[in-house]
Amino acid sequence: MDIVVKGRKTEVPERFRKHVAEKLNLEKIQKLDGKVMSLDVEVSKEPNPRQADRCDRVEITLRSRGPVIRAEASASDPYAALDLAAEKLDARLRKQHDKRFSRRGARRIPAAEVPDHVPGVATLNGSGASTAQEQEQAVPTKKIGSLEVQGDGPLVVREKTHVAAPMTLDQALYEMELVGHDFYLFVDSETKEPSVVYRRHAYDYGVIHLRTDTMVTENHSPEAGGTLGG
């Protein structure tokens, strides 16, 4: 297998071709990937003077029977760009090599060490049940208000019920100013639905209306469930 070096909109000097042959050691590459079919190096130059620090670009493409591996880098001269691209190629080749090597089982991790190497993995007890489920079941559950809380749960849970007469939006704004709050929950006298008025900027206010979704109500009604069950 030979290394093919070509230039795109630029000429490649013989000195650079020799440097490529020295930098990309074919014997070393074939040890990491014994199925390499071709190795191409493309050199290009950016004419924009504002990009002088990365005007030379080198792209290395390695094709084998597996996936194509490509590495590219830019620098102020082609030799520096080649060195950077070669380092990237070597790292990707080693990563691919280690992946294949571990798939063959030569680097299998003992079951007892799996949680140390694989984050978030489930661990099992002697009966084959998940220890996470055991721990979850062991945590006591208590009821705070209308919530079921495991363990310590929220620091503060407070539930309040207020009896409120329907009122207009103007009255709700007036009530909010009286209590000095930034929002006020009320029942709109026109829609008979819960609404919230809130302070925005200076004397600007906003209002949020809640409207019952009849489709959701019907799907969750006892009558609908009885019909399906009967």
Number of strands: 9
What characteristic shape results from the CA principal axes? elongated
Q: Can you say what the CATH homologous superfamily of the domain at 2-105 is?
A: Ribosome hibernation promotion factor-like
Class from helix and strand fractions: alpha+beta
Strand content: 15-25%
Largest sheet: 4 strands, mixed
Report the top-level CATH class of the domain at 2-105: Alpha Beta
Could you tell me the CATH topology label of the domain at 2-105: Double Stranded RNA Binding Domain
Alpha plus pi helix count: 8
Give the assembly state of these chains: single chain
What is the string of SSEs from the N terminus onward?
EHHEEEHHHEEHEEEHH
- How far from one another are the termini? 76 Å
What descriptive keywords fit this protein?
three-stranded antiparallel β-sheet, 230 residues, four-stranded mixed β-sheet, disordered C terminus, RHF-like, HPF_long/plastid, alpha+beta, SHC Adaptor Protein, Double Stranded RNA Binding Domain, 8 helices, cytoplasm, HPF/YfiA_ribosome-assoc
Write the layout of secondary structure elements.
Elements: E1 3-8, H1 14-23, H2 26-32, E2 36-45, E3 56-64, E4 69-75, H3 78-103, H4 114-117, H5 131-138, E5 141-144, E6 147-150, H6 169-179, E7 183-187, E8 194-199, E9 205-209, H7 214-219, H8 222-229
Parallel strand pairs: 1-2
Antiparallel strand pairs: 2-3, 3-4, 5-6, 7-8, 8-9
Helix pairs in contact: 1-3
Keywords: Cytoplasm, Translation regulation
Subcellular location: Cytoplasm
Domain Sigma 54 modulation/S30EA ribosomal protein C-terminal: 154-207
